[in-house]
Design brief:
By secondary structure, the protein is of the alpha+beta class. 36% of the residues lie in helices and 17% in strands. The protein binds 6-diazenyl-5-OXO-L-norleucine (DON).
Length: 568
């Protein structure tokens, strides 16, 4: 009895949620793990989730709320939220129609295949990550304006207003975020002529208010002129001036030409569920589809969560999927990616023909190999569902935490360093250790390959799950684990998201495992099968919504970060 009470108290404490009144005066609930009936927003920052819920409560739909969240994240979560970057969105409408919006950045017109190489053909310093040359042409504003004009129901001014308020009036920094700004202080001061709003005289403390007046002005231009408020006029001029200052190459023409694009969702079935996710230029959807296809014939649920047998199978599937990514994936507007063939069930069965259930297959025997770097970077995912059955899963990024750390002078936003997602030198690993091939070589106007994997899952035609994650190469394997945790291990969504994770990406030939997530006996078994194991800090950060059998919505905002759900 005592034990039960203790557990109850613990549950109440850990899932603590608050009733809050928004602008519209309708109360809403906020917390990590909440259940509500009418609408739900889960994002990386409490302010952005509040922006989304306020828009839903004003009568907006999931698209209105998603656009409000994306724009609010650009203010309150500059680590990855952005208007200077890009991303992918999966939309499910209440009638079951699914669409994918690709607002990924593009290489500028003046970009060249070998622009980051020195005279000897070697990668020259950190040009593709730390300089003005690192930025692709931003896609977020075009994407948000486009999706809103087609599917939003409120006036655009209403969905951008929360972001303007946050930038103008400021917001109190959560402690972790104050620390994250402080950690990046040197990059901000070193790479900008005028100190941006992200740096102040002393170090930031939790509760300090961050105001961004330049960004507020940029957002107001977007409020007034839509995409033109960013891709032409003063904002465009400020971007081009910034480029000139730092030898960057994004031109007025690049900005004018930029266009987001709708793509056919990549759809697959797994057991009794149907998934819709993103096709190239993200490789994430293909990897997720391949992993599901490669494990479906095995009863991983019966084998047990994190049993050596199940981890071994998943890792072997991951090796094969990542080996394929390296060879075939790139921007489908430039190269033909054999998506159908790569996700074909027969092919996936063949791919696992050399799977040995007792031994690790060395990566060198899966395909040729090369070493890699580490990863501690930020992207961010938000999930939204409304009471009409519309849902949005969107992942967005500047690539690195705070992108290139270069802030457009006078415009107040950070530029991405997404160019590093190209194969800067085909055959050499990028900062996520991903080795790219020719399909992902730099070409003017081309989109760089991504791993982002926002996903919407249905069961018997009804909305079931909205999910996604940051984490570079670990994104698709993270999303995959959340799905099998729910489907095969019957976890509720918050358990599925908080559960420990592991990752293999073919090269290097090792399993990365979150510290203390797999017991030592199982680790020993895996080592005996021939796996090399490395423990690392957290993998991914999932923001998800599950629709319960009674129609209510349950949130999971990952314990890894200051993710927050708001619902009503
Ligand atoms: O598009 C991509 O795959 C990368 N630019 C994403 C970077 C990322 O997820 C960093 N994350 N934590």
């Amino acid at each position: 009895m005592k034990h039960t009470i203790k557990i109850l108290v613990l549950i109440i404490l850990t899932s603590a949620c608050r009733q809050i009144h928004s602008d519209s005066k309708i109360p809403f609930t906020e917390g990590r793990e909440i259940v509500t009936k009418n609408g739900m927003v889960v994002s990386a920052h409490p302010e952005a989730s509040r922006a989304g819920i306020s828009v839903l409560q004003k009568g907006g739909n999931a698209v209105d709320a998603a656009v409000a969240v994306q724009l609010a994240l650009a203010v309150c979560y500059p680590e990855a939220g952005n208007i200077g970057g890009g991303g992918f969105m999966v939309l499910r409408q209440s009638d079951g129609t699914k669409r994918v919006l690709d607002f990924r950045e593009k290489a500028p017109i003046a970009a060249k295949r070998d622009m980051y190489l020195d005279g000897d053909g070697n990668i020259a310093g950190k040009l593709s990550t730390d300089t003005h040359l690192a930025s692709g042409v931003p896609g977020t504003v075009d994407g948000m304006v486009r999706i809103h004009s087609l599917y939003g129901s409120l006036d655009f001014r209403d969905v951008i207003q929360p972001a303007i308020n946050l930038a103008e009036k400021g917001f109190p920094l959560p402690e972790d975020q104050a620390a994250s700004l402080n950690r990046n202080r040197e990059n901000f001061t070193g790479r900008n002529r005028i100190l941006p709003a992200f740096v102040k005289d002393s170090l930031w403390k939790g509760g300090d208010v961050l105001r961004q007046p330049d960004l507020a002005k940029t957002m107001k231009r977007i409020r007034k002129h839509g995409r033109k408020g960013f891709y032409s006029g003063l904002t465009a001029q400020l971007i081009v001036n910034e480029m000139k200052r730092g030898n960057g190459i994004i031109s007025e023409k690049d900005l004018e030409n930029y266009s987001s694009v709708f793509r056919e969702p990549l759809q697959t079935d797994y057991r009794n569920y149907s998934l819709s996710t993103v096709p190239p230029p993200s490789g994430g959807g293909i990897i997720l589809t391949q992993l599901l296809g490669m494990v479906e014939s095995s009863p991983v649920g019966e084998w047990g969560f994190h049993s050596a047998k199940a981890v071994h199978l998943v890792v072997e599937a991951e090796k094969r999927a990542f080996a394929d990514r390296s060879g075939y994936s790139g921007d489908p507007d430039f190269v033909s990616v054999p998506v159908k063939e790569l996700t074909d069930r027969k092919y996936l069965r063949l791919r696992m023909n050399d799977f040995d259930e007792k031994r690790a297959t060395p990566s060198s025997a899966v395909f040729g190999g090369d070493p890699l770097a580490d990863e501690n970077e930020q992207t961010t995912h938000y999930s939204v569902a409304d009471r009409y059955g519309n849902a949005v899963a969107a992942t967005t990024t500047l690539n690195n935490t705070f992108g290139s750390s270069i802030v457009v002078e006078g415009a107040g936003f950070i530029l991405n360093n997404e160019m590093d997602d190209f194969s800067v030198k085909p055959g050499e690993p990028n900062m996520y250790g991903l080795t790219g091939g020719d399909a992902n070589a730099i070409e003017p106007g081309k989109r760089m390959l991504s791993s982002m994997t926002p996903v919407i899952v249905e069961k018997e035609g009804k909305l079931f799950l909205v999910a996604g994650s940051p984490g570079g190469a670990t994104i698709p394997t993270t999303v995959f684990q959340v799905i099998i945790n729910v489907v095969d291990y019957r976890m509720k969504i918050s358990e599925a998201v908080d559960a420990g994770r592991f990752h293999h990406q073919w090269l290097p030939d090792q399993i990365s495992i979150e510290a203390n997530s797999i017991d030592s006996l199982t680790l020993m078994e895996l080592k005996n099968m021939g796996h090399e194991i490395r423990t690392r800090s957290s993998i991914g950060s999932v923001n998800a919504i599950q629709i319960l059998p009674d129609g209510r919505m349950a949130s999971a905002s990952d314990k890894r970060g200051f993710n927050t759900a708001c619902g009503y």
